[in-house]
Amino acid sequence: MIGRTALDAVTQAPGEVIVATKPKILFCDLRLQPGETKMYFFNEFVPRDGPPTYRGHNIRYFYKITIATQRVKSKVQTLAVPIRVLPIPIISRPDELPVTVETNEELAPTNPFLEKREISELEISWHHLKNVTARRAPKFYRISNKRGFVGRFCLFKPAYKLGEDIVGSLDFDPGVNPRKVRCVQFSVKLQQQELSIRPQPVQNHQLQTQSSTGDDVSSINSFDMASIASGVVADNLHKSATSASSRDKEAPEPTGKLSTISTSHQVCYATLQTQVVVPIPLHVTPTFRTDLVDVRWRLHFEFVTTTLMDFGIPNPESGELKAPAEMPVETMVWNLPVTVYAANPLQIYAPNQTFNLLIK
């Protein structure tokens, strides 16, 4: 983070400067004796409206603290210290957020001799973050294709912090209804989407070409609940499209650049219920949006289903089951959006780093 001073020619870097603070002079005409040391402290507020640190496919945001020194009749020596900036969740109603603290004026005992403690904006933001990512009402999703019921997925909460585990459960028991399809195996991928907001004529031309091919292609691209990637059931996609996608057939939802962060795979042919755990690492960037890019998160499910209910023929000699040589399978794909928030910087491990600057 640098300001517009005479040092701009020295501290030029590729790209554009989006956030810049005013430079501060720490010392002037400093003279040290041999073996003498002096320590200077520097503090600066990071602007709230700035983007977080992000290293993506097409756009990169990075922050640095530029330290410049100069001796008389010498060149300017600079030192760039990189820092990581995490986004703070937007406070929708600041007037109601003081009730999120442990005690307020109505519950605390009245004592005129105690000083009134003021709540900082950062503390209010962390309390708001705890409320947003709290585990409240779980969400249930019924997964099915044209063959019948595949399973029911339960997500305990839709918002998570960095370092948390996305925990859910899959129930393959159809209940009283007869079972017509069985899930052989499935995989869950935590993916990061990078959507470019800057208009690109090439993509617009491709979008017009795709929308002119017919309603079937647009319905496949905009199928947000459960899209099936098998040729056997691809003809049934336009019948199972949601109402939201049918209203917006001419503008399919873009996928952007995808990055798979973590994966969980399970074989569940003879399983009635299982648990899904997908970790969120600490080094990734939470959900955010700027004028140039929109970063989102989603869970990408891939189900391999089959209509073969009996797994092989029992072996009368040893009592084991003999697996079939061939099994008809179909692949089913489903994307579930989730929101990832920042964690407390004190919870993110960062080793102490030393940066040296040689003044010539």
Automatic annotation (TrEMBL):
List, alphabetically, the InterPro entries matched.
Rgp1 (IPR014848)
Task: State the source organism's domain of life.
Answer: Eukaryota
- In residue numbers, the region (Disordered) covers 197-216, 240-259
Pfam families membership: Rgp1
Protein name as catalogued: GD19766
Q: What organism does this protein naturally occur in?
A: Drosophila simulans
